[in-house]
Amino acid sequence: MKSQPRRISRATVLIISIAGLVLAAVLWGWWSYSRPAVPLAATTQVPSEDGVRLEALQISSLGIKAEPAVSTDEVALTGLPAEAMPPLEASTQVTVPYAGIVIRLLVDEGERVRRGQPLLRLQSRELLAAQADVQRARSQAALAGQQARRDAQLAEEGIIPAARREQSSASAAIAQASRLQAEGMLSQLRVVSGGSPGEYEVLAPQDGRILRRSAAPGQAMEAMAPVFVIADATRMDVMFSAPVDLREQLLPGLEVALPGGGRAQIVSVSGDTDRSSQSLRVRARADAAGSLLAGQQFAVVLKLPAPAGALRVPRSALLPHRDQQLLYVQQGDLFHGVVVNQLGHDDTHAVVLSPSLQPGMQVVSRGASVLKSMAPVE
To answer: pTM for this structure?
Structure first.
């Protein structure tokens, strides 16, 4: 009789499975314990006051890079808000010499003009009266001059006293001054040839660009009302705000870096602070106007003299440390932290000061945060 195959119970299968899992776990633990440790876990810790020592392979694995600290004689302050504007002595406010109605505008904002070029045309009753005054002043000056010359000759002949001659001479001088004053008002304009009575054009007092227009066709203008602002387009000033605590350091001649590589030099510093921002207003003269436009706003970089012992280091090397900054210095295989005071910075480098940092020391520019976790500075 053929024997039946032996059946294995479910309980036996379960016990065998559990035994296999336990054996696998034991073998995995033995393998993990006996395999060599990776380089990152093999850092050799030294006392905290000395830092941490790393082997070459560990330094490479952590991606640590360093570059030397360099002495510097200037500190860069970035992000100072600034605005371009024409120099005070290179801009002119153009006014209307006589009240009238604007007939036509001949130029607009942004246009370049030449000295003596017509800017706008007006029609004025006051001009008619002024022209009559000029003719009257010219006639009176001519008559007074003739009388003064006649009295001078008579005084030399002894016919009239010297006092009479002096009186005639003074009257002639007054009449001449009145003529010059009347003609001076007309020198700011040009009477339109063939135009309506009282029609005149206001002329540009200088070469430059029209920055602002305050008149429109048909507008009634009072005498001496402003109509244009003209500025020299080849020159530009930069007004920017600086912290109040820099007042003693802000001296004329200091360099200011402009966007696009331009340069300017400080020419004046305000004597009081701006009420809204509590900062100092500083005016700098740009070497060339370049692409700057009046009213354009941007940020500038101020270059200040650095104190003795100031060093230039990578900005990426700095880590926050309370109210100061922390960086790490590499000396062979030893890395240790140094607390520094940051004086200023630009986009790539910072200027710091610390008695523990010397020129030429290798400052960690990449991987400093990893070193901070290995060798924290108290």
So the answer is: 0.59
